[in-house]
Amino acid sequence: GILGYGNTGGRVSTSNLISNAGVVAADVTGVGTARQGLAACTYGGDKGMFGYGSTASPTTPVGMTNHVSNTGVVASDTAGVGTPMYDTAATQYGGNKGIFAFGNDSSTPYTAVSHLVSNSGIVDRHVIDSHKLAAVFGIARIMGISPPIVSFIT
Questions:
Q1: 113-117 β-sheet, strand order
Q2: What is the pTM of this model?
Q3: DSSP at 118
Q4: Residues 6 or more apart whose Cβ sits within 8 Å of residue 19
Q5: What is the DSSP letter of 141?
Q6: Which of 41, 63, 96, 151 maximizes the CB count within 10 A of its CB?
Q7: Residue 66, by phi and psi: left (phi above 0), alpha (psi -120 to 50) or beta?
Q8: What is the pLDDT of residues 27-72, one digit of tens each?
Q9: Sheet strands (E) in 1-154
């Protein structure tokens, strides 16, 4: 696995590989644009992707992704990907595809936009039915939990 990016008093572009025994490797710094509020998912069965986030104030979203190879190498930025958003969530689905969904786009809290990731890592924008979006966040509020905003690439 791999963990990356975030805020340690300032936005960072640091990543750490995680071994199959859960051991965190040394910091790898400086790959991609430093940002926070992003998410990550797997695709293609053995690769990953970090996506979106905020590079400046919490309300400055970016439409940016970074592919992660099957050996854990983080690629440089791919800019202009879909709708810029931060505080988003991501996961894998269908065995070899991923999805980034919801979050904020600086004008709409909890936007009804998702970005589907193909098994080859191509990102496609998709608008989610707003009734489904309301249901997801309504259930989260009723249960007293925050909507998910963090993911882990396995």
A1: 89-93, 97-101, 113-117, 123-127
A2: 0.81
A3: -
A4: 25
A5: H
A6: 41
A7: beta
A8: 998 889 999 999 999 999 999 999 999 998 767 899 999 999 999 9
A9: 2-7, 11-17, 39-43, 47-51, 64-68, 78-79, 89-93, 97-101, 113-117, 123-127
